[in-house]
Design a protein that fits this description.
By secondary structure, the protein is of the alpha+beta class. It is 27% helix and 28% strand. The protein has helices spanning 11-23, 91-113, 128-137, 151-156, 253-266, 295-301, 305-317; strands spanning 2-6, 28-32, 37-43, 51-56, 61-64, 70-73, 116-118, 145-148, 162-165, 173-174, 179-180, 185-186, 197-201, 207-214, 217-224, 245-248, 270-277, 283-289. α1 (11-23) packs across α7 (305-317) and α3 crosses α5 (253-266).
Length: 318
């Protein structure tokens, strides 16, 4: 049995499941982040036999650990409604119940990951700074990067063109009147105190590269974003009237080997890597998203990555 955890609106998961069903009548169970998980039993005893059974959404979708051959972690987590929303509950008690669930949640995930697997829940949120260090050790060039809240240090630091972006992950911050755009931006020098912020040297680019990795396979796409003022700093500032070209790109053997070495040192078996290829043809590592968008690379380049993931899973189940 294949068990996967994802989000209900993740198109990539839908496509992989469609290929999986087309290729095989093998049983599978999907748990979405908004599904409600009920623990039937977790039994640990001296016979070293673990009994773990879950029910999802109360619809008799029952998962038994000994029936599971493969676990695919794509996105999201296991959701537990701690308490009926109509009942008033002390905040400290609610925090305690959250912690109680987290211990169970993480144990269940680790048990699933002890099977043959793809993806890692515990590495789904990465540390960009640590990954830059790893990339450097793997032979990649990285952007010169500083973290500071010291305005004087920033003013005197010898870095001509600077960009800033979140140290962690961009998220939506808005209210009914306004919102914060957390995409990559050129730095306008502040005049007052700032929160510890990531500042990088702006890398001139020939093209951007999005590289999707699944086990020992890589799929690269070139993004021609440099000549459009809207997308030059961050291609996610999409220009719907003059769209960027997305085309397949052949990586050199040397860069592929650096990517595989990075994935090994980072403890990842899948993810989307962002690179810049400079006018001098130097590859610059920016970051990796372990649960990055698959169809963004797959569809424009006709790679059929979702088909290949289904095949990879079935190859490992066999």
């Amino acid at each position: 049995m294949l068990v996967l955890i994802s989000e209900s609106n993740d198109l990539s998961t839908d496509k992989v499941v469609e290929w999986f069903i087309q290729f095989s009548d093998y049983k599978f169970g999907r748990i979405n982040e908004n599904d409600s998980v009920y623990i039937n039993q977790i039994v640990l005893n001296n016979s070293e036999t673990l009994s773990l059974q879950l029910t999802v959404n109360g619809d008799n979708k029952n998962f038994k650990v000994y029936d599971i051959d493969f676990f695919w972690y794509r996105r999201g987590n296991l959701n537990k409604k701690i308490i009926n929303s109509s009942i008033q509950i002390n905040n400290q008690l609610l925090k305690f119940l959250d912690w109680e669930w987290k211990i169970c949640h993480d144990f269940i995930i680790r048990t699933l990951m002890s099977k043959k697997s793809l993806g890692d829940y515990f590495k789904s949120s990465v540390n960009k700074l640590e990954n830059l260090q790893i990339a450097l050790k793997c032979g990649f060039i990285i952007p010169e990067t500083i973290i500071t809240e010291d305005i004087q240090f920033l003013l005197t630091y010898n870095m001509r063109k600077k960009i800033t972006k979140p140290i962690s992950e961009a998220m939506i911050i808005s209210d009914e009147n306004d919102y914060l755009d957390l995409k990559t931006k050129l730095v306008n020098m502040p005049s007052n105190n700032i929160f510890p912020s990531l500042i990088q040297k702006k890398i001139e680019k020939w093209i951007e590269l999005r590289v999707f990795v699944s086990y020992n396979e890589v799929y690269a796409m070139a993004i021609f974003s440099q000549n459009n003022f809207k997308t030059n700093i961050d291609y996610r500032n999409y220009d719907e009237e003059k769209k960027n070209r997305f085309v397949p790109f052949a990586l050199t053997h040397d860069i592929k080997q650096k990517i595989f070495l990075f994935m090994e040192k980072a403890g990842l078996d899948t993810g989307s890597i962002d690179l810049i290829l400079t006018p001098q043809k130097e590859y610059v590592f920016l970051e990796i998203n372990p649960a990055g968008n698959i169809e963004m690379v797959s569809e424009p380049c006709n790679y059929y990555i979702e088909k290949r993931i289904a095949e990879q899973i079935l190859e490992r189940i066999a």
